[in-house]
Amino acid sequence: MDANTTLPLHTGNRMPAFGLGTWQLTDDTAGTVAAALELGYRLIDTAVDYGTQPGVGEGIRRSGIERSDFYLVTKVEETDDAYEATRAYLGELGLDHADLMLIHRPPSSGPGEELWRGLIRAKEEGLTRDIGVSNYSTDLIDRLIEATGEVPTVNQIEWSPFGHSDDMLRYANEKRMIIQAYSPLTRGKRLDDARLGEIAAKHGKSPAQVLIRWNLQRGTAAVPKANLPAHLAENIDVFDFELGEDDMARLNGLNERFSSLGKLPYA
Ligand SMILES: NC(=O)c1ccc[n+]([C@@H]2O[C@H](COP(=O)([O-])OP(=O)(O)OC[C@H]3O[C@@H](n4cnc5c(N)ncnc54)[C@H](OP(=O)(O)O)[C@@H]3O)[C@@H](O)[C@H]2O)c1
């Protein structure tokens, strides 16, 4: 496993398991994205409401990376016209297609069938290679599938040893849908947990690196965000160690449905 390792989507395409989150990457988004690509990051996650799409596009151009060598994830908002928004966001990014477009969160009125139909159209027209959802429960995903027959390739949700769901993982496996972990570092809120610290010390790694590795070894993707160059480098340095079965069992056992945002939207 390395930073180029990909996970299979049910469409036959593949998505890097590891990447960079860009929420609050406001200091110098373009510089951080270019530095991340230089370090070997191959997936960038953004959204219009992070305000980082223009900076992400600029960082990509600055890096000189080939289009086929990186994977771009962005999202439509629940009030958007999904098809038109996809076109507009590609304009902000300066790209002719995304790799993955997500519905950022379900609208309060239901699963968002219209949004989903808009993304299906965007995919059919080549504006994005794949489509998925974020912050969706299994029930809401079922309702999208019932309405359209289209299964999301990815559900991007808050996911860490401290907050995850075996039911959601089972459901995702049944549907061949990939879970992409956001806030995989608990926004730094649980990095000083003593049990996590013990496992990290045993491997000569940091707690953040253990949290990322836990995801990768379970076949779930992760998009940690880092402004600091030292964090950026540390988070991709997770491919030279392996958590044992006992470590993984202990990490799984830390689950208390913790959410750094307040509530797990799917549990
Ligand atoms: N779909 C959604 O609704 C949704 C919601 C939330 C997040 N997301 C996505 O997921 C990404 C990641 O989530 P997040 O930004 O909420 O939180 P996160 O990645 O869990 O944590 C980011 C925080 O951890 C710090 N950090 C990074 N690497 C570290 C390290 N090695 N050691 C110690 N601290 C470290 C960062 O500090 P510095 O920045 O100072 O380096 C930052 O304060 C977002 O950026 C966004 O792309 C999506």
Spell out the key features of this protein.
single chain, TIM Barrel, 267 residues, 39% helix, binds NADP nicotinamide-adenine-dinucleotide phosphate, 10 helices, 10 strands, alpha/beta, globular, two-stranded antiparallel ribbon
Description:
By secondary structure, this protein is an alpha/beta fold. The protein has one domain (6-252): TIM Barrel, CATH 3.20.20. Helices cover 39% and strands 16% of the residues. It has ten helices and ten strands. The strands form two sheets. It has an eight-stranded parallel beta sheet with strand order 3-4-5-6-7-8-9-10. α5 links the parallel β7 (128-134) and β8 (154-158). The model has no long low-confidence stretch (mean pLDDT 97). Bound molecules: NADP nicotinamide-adenine-dinucleotide phosphate (NAP). NADP nicotinamide-adenine-dinucleotide phosphate (NAP) binds at residues 21-23, 45, 104-105, 134-135, 156, 182-188, 191, 206, 208, 223-228, 231, 234-235.
Tell me the layout of helices and strands.
Elements: E1 6-8, E2 14-16, E3 20-21, H1 29-39, E4 43-45, H2 53-63, E5 71-76, H3 82-93, E6 98-103, H4 113-124, E7 128-134, H5 138-148, E8 154-158, H6 166-175, E9 178-182, H7 194-203, H8 207-217, E10 221-222, H9 229-236, H10 245-252
Parallel strand pairs: 3-4, 4-5, 5-6, 6-7, 7-8, 8-9, 9-10
Antiparallel strand pairs: 1-2
Helix pairs in contact: 1-2, 1-9, 3-4, 7-8
The chain binds NADP nicotinamide-adenine-dinucleotide phosphate (NAP).
